[in-house]
Target: YEATS domain-containing protein
Amino acid sequence: MPQKTIRKEIKVITDQNIVKGQKQNGFPMRKWKISLAGVNANGDEEPMPYVDYVEYILHQTFEQPLRKVTEFPFVLQEKGWGEFDMKIMLHFVEKSVPPFVLDHDLNFQSNHYEVPQTITFSKIDQKHSFIKLLNSPTTNASDRESSNDSTNDGATHKRRREALTKEKSKRIKDDRSSDDESHNSSAAVSGDEEDKIDVHQLAKKFQMLHPDDLIPLVNLVKANQTSDMYVKEDGEAGEFHIDLRTLGESLLAVLWKFCDDCLEKYQKSHKKK
Model:
């Protein structure tokens, strides 16, 4: 019997403060910390046992823009002077469930702010153990500790990487899924099977992305790459070759959502002008 859609409420918690006596590019340096927490029906914080690990995709000017955190409350601490938009990817203990990607605006308008998010799980009727985990009551997480979950890979300072500013390093090629046929530009699925990602349309979306968004896209592929995927990086040519048909539906769905989020952001930015 098909299961009802399950929704889990979470929030992204940001804390930031000025570091006295330190400036960069004329701006004060700040220490910031991001963590996650589940939210129960009473509005109280709770653990997230259904999440295996979290990846933070930072601005490409960070020395290590991709950070992996494996322990709840998935704390990431850093130091820098600028505001930026980041991606946060939640990977679940049930590996057949696609990762959930959310956008987070790191800003310095307030020393502490919390942003609610909703994760929707559907079509998981066969994953009984995962359903039980999602529905099981959890203890209050008000005793969240941050000292032991500090900086997954250690705090690093921002550093401009000249190679990333070169246009040739921002090109992505799909060698095996060229658009040889005419396809409906709004189609999210192929005509062969429902819920299949149309790799031709996804390749088109890649070409519509701004150069600054290609590096996080590459990081998404690298973070989820397996041995049976065709992914090749040509450092000399500054190109990244992908056979989209080898990536698997879960990763394709993540890339599709990433592209849609970027394109929606472009449209909103254009309307404001």
Observations:
- The two ends are 50 Å apart (CA to CA).
